[in-house]
Amino acid sequence: MSEALSMRTLVVELNGSLSIKEIPRPKPGPKEALVKTIACGMCGTDIKLIHNSFKGFSDANYPLMLGHEGVGEVVEIGAEVKGLKIGDKVLLPFVDPCHGLGSGYGALSEYAIVQDAQAHTSDTVPQVALAQTVLPPDLNPVDAVTFVTFREVLSSIRYFGIKPEDSIVVFGCGPVGLTFIKLLSLSGCKNIIAVDLVDDKLAYAIANGAKKAINSKVDDVKSVVRELYPTGVNHVLDAVGLPIVANQAMHILKDRGNILCYGVLADNQITLDFGAASYNWNFICQQMPEKAEEGAAHKQILEWVQAGKLVMKDFISDYFTFDNSVDAYDKLLAGKVLKKGIITF
Question: pLDDT tier at 55 (50, 70, 90 boundaries)?
Fold first, then answer.
């Protein structure tokens, strides 16, 4: 059915330029389903791929199809599919490398593929299938792209071992940092300090559970944190991927405190000056949450959303059409998308 049909996809070239290209539509295998894309979130993964700075991607992988945070509707199923049906709305559809294009996950395409975990045995199921979750029919499928960030962040909170009684400084109050603050708060954490350069983002952080907000252009982070926590804090979370954050953490960590790096560091390297730190500290990096862990976080996220404790629209600032996706990424790269931007199809 689908082999003779085409679709459009957003492509980034090695030099960072973006364009929409037409390619053949993928055909689902016997254990797969084809989805028609409904929406896809714009995320930091895309930015790093545009800048050719994402770990594991070399020049040879370009040009790349972009898109990581997709939701699609099942329109065709393979012969062995058991756990998916036509009309299901599913998280995390991807497109494999094809037709001379590498895959930066490829969810910014008009069509994509999801795996059916139930069509596999436990030892052959693709890892991605463990997070390709069917959404309830009453959930807004466009806004549900936020579930990808929500689930990745909650699984990382669990991986990092952050406890409700712990103190934590979160550097960066963009979509990821704001999500960390909200989910930490929902998990019972009360000792959360937010750091950013933009007052509007800091206001969002306070509204979502931060105890204190620090504009690092105006105030000295070390002085403010040490006034609140004289012996230092349990955790410093880098939600932006900048080596300077880890070095600032050395001045505010308590003994045996943790530097928590979420995401991919610029240039995949970091130099630490730990002269200001205690003798004992840990550096923990979560660059790519395990899909099984992400899938396991889905139930709690869904419960919070359905209970009204976690509101998807609170984390969204912009909607763009796929036809305008190149302009949308220009706006994102210019820092003009304050929260989550979503591309709709």
Answer: confident
Domains along the sequence of the chain with CATH: 6-141+313-344 (3.90.180.10), 149-286 (3.40.50.720)
Task: Give the helix/strand (H/E) hosting 247.
Answer: helix 243-249
**DSSP E strands: which ranges in the chain?**
6-12, 18-24, 32-42, 64-65, 69-77, 89-91, 102-103, 111-115, 167-171, 191-196, 212-215, 233-238, 253-262, 281-286, 316-321, 340-344
The Cα 243–Cα 234 span in angstroms is: 19
The pLDDT, as a whole number, for residue 2 is 43
Q: Is 222 helix (H, G, I), strand (E, B) or coil?
A: helix
Does residue 71 sit in helix, strand or coil?
strand
* CA pair distance 211, 167, nearest whole angstrom: 10
Q: Quick one: tokens of 330?
A: 């220009």
Question: How many CB atoms are located within 10 Å of the residue 21 CB?
Answer: 15
Residues 6+ apart with CB under 8 A from 124: none
**What pLDDT score does 4 carry?**
63
Which helix or strand (DSSP H or E) is residue 146 part of?
Answer: helix 146-160
Per residue in 60-108, pLDDT (tens digit) is 999 999 999 999 999 999 999 999 999 999 999 999 999 999 999 999 9
The residue written with tokens 């997070």 in the block is 131
